[in-house]
Specification:
With about 200 residues, the protein is mainly alpha-helical. It contains 10 helices and no strands.
């Protein structure tokens, strides 16, 4: 049953991504058309035609709007891909928790040991960010864990961890961030079920 749900989720996500790509292509096509018009109008503008100047301004505005549309659409596509990736290793229910695959990565990769060996230092780094609530503890643990990529002494270990689990470094760090969140949340006197209460996306939905 779980596999069937996962397959349906993946197919749905892929269809959404394909739809988003179609929108990007349309917007890109419009932008190319506007660019051509702008070039033609600029050539005419050199002759001093005021009406052509108005057309240039109009085309410039259209190009700008198309670029904004592409940026927005690309961001939405990134969010869909990001969610699809995360749902491979964590429950879709909120707040996110590691599923069986995520737990296997946690143990097989060695990221659990890496975190346990540095738990106090990682906790202090999150604490220094002064999280206001459970949601911000969760977000700051991600930031702190992802910064480990920049630790050149630790990078070989992370690469080995990724290799051991058959995943990339970003995946094992995300898995580790959920593990770290659960380990330190009570140190801030926050509870797991308080995360949604302070999640801006949940407030606005």
């Amino acid at each position: 049953m779980d596999k069937a749900v996962l397959i349906i989720s993946i197919i749905t996500g892929l269809l959404t991504i394909l739809g988003t790509l179609a929108v990007v292509c349309v917007a890109w096509g419009k932008m190319k058309e506007f660019t051509k018009n702008l070039k033609d109008n600029f050539s005419e503008f050199k002759t001093g035609n005021k009406e052509t100047l108005d057309e240039v301004k109009k085309d410039y505005k259209s190009i700008n709007e198309s670029i904004i549309d592409i940026d927005k659409t690309t961001e939405k596509m990134k969010e869909k891909v990001d969610l699809l990736w995360k749902e491979r290793i964590a429950t879709s229910a909120s707040p996110m928790a590691l599923n069986n695959r995520g737990l296997k990565i946690l143990n097989d990769s060695g990221i659990k040991n890496i975190i346990d060996e540095r738990i106090e230092d990682l906790y202090k780094q999150v604490k220094n960010k002064k999280p206001r609530n459970a949601y911000w503890v969760q977000e700051h643990t991600k930031t702190v864990l992802y910064k480990l990529r920049k630790n050149l002494d630790l990078l070989p270990k992370l690469e080995t961890s990724a290799y051991n689990s058959g995943e990339d470094i970003d995946t094992i760090l995300f898995v580790g961030s959920l593990y770290l969140r659960d380990k330190i949340l009570t140190k801030f006197n926050f509870k797991l079920d308080e995360i949604d209460k302070h999640d801006p996306e949940k407030k606005n939905s």
